[in-house]
Amino acid sequence: MTPAELARAIPKAELHIHIEGSLEPELIFALAKRNGVVLPYASVEALRAAYAFTDLQSFLDIYYAGASVLLKEADFYDMAWAYFERAKADNVVHTELFFDPQTHTTRGVPMATVIQGLSRACLDAKEKLGVSALLILCFLRHLSEDDAIATLEAALPYREHFIGVGLDSSELGHPPEKFERVFARCRELGLKLVAHAGEEGPPEYMWQAIDLLKVHRIDHGVACLQDPLLMAELAHTRLPLTVCPLSNLKLCVVNDLRDHPLKKMLDAGLCVTVNSDDPAYFGGYMNTNFVQTTEALGLSRDEVITLARNSFEAAFIDADRRQVLM
Ligand code: ES4
Ligand code: ZN
């Protein structure tokens, strides 16, 4: 079996997927029709043609526009279900989904609609596909900390439906320190903590996520290569980094997949994992990321196995399940 064949076949966890980023253009158009939403694109092809990004913000503008078709509980369910079927096909046995409630509540969609639709899909994923799925509520960092606190309060009646919180959207100019109070409150509530850091932002934002937010994982984190002390710290603590190679390519964080730092991160002993981020926008789901990265970087079978094991080491699962999977 070649390393790429192994990458496809091996059971794995996906830990960095924005569920709104799994909305395929066909589903966007189908939901627009079902809900009577008028889109600023004439066709599926015209929408897909707009997917030429130069940086994170150019992507986020289109990503938030795509999410505007989500209105009813069934829309959230259908979106997540479509992702779970793709995950199953890629031998993903466990997944942790990010969702962005503020993208929906600011349009008048109730928190209950968002969480109940996603949660019901998670239950069915386990029951019908054998894929375990957990939800992570993300705060939009371009909005205020007070807005994040209000979002947390609105979500607390549904506390049992999400395992943790994250921080996403426009990174530059919105450092982790802006969210220190809300993360402290989430920590008191026993929520798992993650944050996007070091995607476009500097290593300093990763230090802030570690020291001020006290995160259990960092999403992306590719900027750590600029800071040898940070590399040493991450190797020592094994704080996981959920890396998204095709996202980094499509958002011009790297210019060529062959230049992606994932192998250097593995060589340094970091707990790195491979993930799809926004698969409908960045050219592929889990196995496309795994296979293209394996081929571009010439990863060995052992390195593929390490990546899969890292995904279970980094997952928010019980020790018993971890032992079985690793
Ligand atoms: C995102 Cl790639 C990325 N970075 C930050 N926030 C996001 N939300 C959805 N995708
Ligand atoms: Zn992300």
UniProtKB/TrEMBL annotation:
The keyword Ribosomal protein does not apply. One of its GO terms (molecular function) is adenine deaminase activity. Keywords: Hydrolase, Metal-binding, Nucleotide metabolism, Zinc. Binds 1 zinc ion per subunit. It holds the Pfam family A_deaminase. The record marks 220 as: Important for catalytic activity. InterPro entries: A_deaminase_dom, ADE, Ado/ade_deaminase, Metal_Hydrolase. It comes from the Bacteria. GO terms for biological process: adenine catabolic process; hypoxanthine salvage; nucleotide metabolic process. Its cofactor is Zn(2+). Belongs to the metallo-dependent hydrolases superfamily. Adenosine and AMP deaminases family. Adenine deaminase type 2 subfamily. HAMAP family: Adenine_deaminase. This is Adenine deaminase.
